[in-house]
Design a protein that fits this description.
It comes from Mucilaginibacter auburnensis. One of its GO terms (molecular function) is glutamine-fructose-6-phosphate transaminase (isomerizing) activity. One of its GO terms (biological process) is amino sugar biosynthetic process. The chain has 14 helices and 12 strands. The chain is of the alpha/beta class. The longest helix has 21 residues. The protein is globular, with a radius of gyration of 20 Å. Bound molecules: fructose -6-phosphate. The site of fructose -6-phosphate has 15 residues, from helix 4 and helix 11. Fructose -6-phosphate binds next to helix 4 and helix 11.
């Protein structure tokens, strides 16, 4: 059932080209510049006029929500707030009938996420779900939703569900952009044409596996690790850190790269691996200065770079290439080497990759 892989986690990492393709199927028409989301189309008017979207989730799903915030604000120009479900539900949040509250949950059963949604519904908001498990509790209480269609995820650490959630949020961003006219038809055509290529680019990205494994051997004895990125690569850094800590038990933190000098920089020494997402996108030059700051303090740098990059490659101790793509889709590719890095480190440390200690696949109690 592991399809020849040693662990479900590795199998699920490798499934991502397929799972993203399934998630896109029937939803994008690149040549027409059109996104179609059957699950929420009844709410098209609401989406067109919405002033604020609130995303509630926990853990990895919350990280996907943060990527969604960048995408929806950038392309659809709607204000987005992303909240930990557990905090949102207990702080008497301000919600009105004008709001759309979106819950993201792989299992569709997470107690805090469910309760946050119930609260929002009570206050009159329109509630949507982005879930993977069909017919779970969350999709049953929502007004509408979009399934991720990643297929069953067995490994406790979420991998293909995360990239599918990000894919759905990307689709929602472009869908609202289409409704509101915040992107021209030709822009939409260009974005959707590139999005259609992502499963192929994911396939290419997965070829980094052997390279990542070598780097994992160099990092496996670390006791701490820092993950840094800017823009939508910041939540990718958070996700990279969460993956590493949950399956390898190495303490890791994700930060926006520019925040480093407000504290974490004090940690940097020759022992501390610092992983940068340093692809050739809008924040490239800024990230380069952050890498220089780490190198100047003797830190060990692993950089995720765009294919063909030489500048960062020369600066970093280790680098992994991913294919070039638009800013909008970098999270879908940059996440993959980080998943593989955690996986290999955990295997080398003899950890129970699919069933890490103290963790459950679905958290049905608060
Ligand atoms: C991390 C992980 C957890 C879940 C979180 C939310 O790899 O799996 O952080 O993301 O418990 O679960 P769902 O998405 O089922 O609500």
């Amino acid at each position: 059932e592991k399809g020849g892989y040693d662990h479900f986690m590795l199998k699920e990492i490798y499934e991502q080209s397929r799972s993203i393709r399934d998630c896109l199927r029937g939803r994008i028409y690149p040549e027409k510049g059109k996104v179609q989301l059957g699950g929420i189309k009844e709410y098209a008017d609401k989406l067109k006029n919405v002033d604020r979207i609130i995303i509630v989730a926990c853990g990895t799903s919350w990280h996907a929500g943060l990527v969604g915030e960048y995408l929806i604000e950038e392309y659809a120009r709607v204000s987005v707030e992303v909240e930990y479900a557990s905090e949102f539900r207990y702080r008497n949040p301000i919600i009105s009938e004008r709001d759309i509250v979106i819950a993201i949950s792989q299992s569709g059963e997470t107690a805090d996420t469910m309760a946050a949604l119930e609260l929002a519904k009570e206050k009159g908001a329109t509630i949507f779900g982005i879930c993977n498990v069909v017919g779970a509790s969350i999709p049953r209480i929502t007004h509408a939703g979009v399934y991720t269609h990643a297929g069953p995820e067995i490994g406790v650490a979420s991998t293909k569900a995360f990239t599918a959630q990000v894919t759905v949020l990307t689709l929602i961003g472009f869908y609202i952009a289409q409704l509101r006219g915040t992107l021209t038809k030709s822009k939409l055509i260009a974005y959707l044409t590139e999005l259609d290529q992502i499963p192929e680019l994911v396939e290419q990205t997965l070829k980094c596996n052997e390279e990542v494994k070598k780097i994992a051997a160099a990092f496996k004895d670390a006791s701490n690790c820092l993950f840094l990125g800017r823009g939508s690569s910041f939540p990718v850094a958070l996700e990279g850190a969460l993956k590493l800590k949950e399956i390898s038990y190495i303490h890791a933190e994700g930060y926006p790269a520019a925040e480093m000098k407000h504290g974490p920089i004090a940690l940097i020494d020759a022992e501390l691996p610092v992983v940068f997402i340093a692809t050739k996108n809008s924040s490239y030059e800024k990230v380069i200065s952050n890498i220089q700051e780490v190198k100047a303090r003797g830190g060990r740098v692993l950089a995720i770079v765009t294919e063909g990059d030489t500048e960062v490659r020369n600066m970093a101790d280790y680098s992994i290439e991913i294919p070039a793509t638009d800013d909008a889709f970098v999270p879908l590719l940059a996440t993959i080497p980080l998943q593989l890095l955690s996986y290999h480190i955990a295997v080398m440390r003899n950890c129970n990759v699919d069933q890490p200690r103290n963790l459950a696949k679905s958290v049905t109690v608060e």
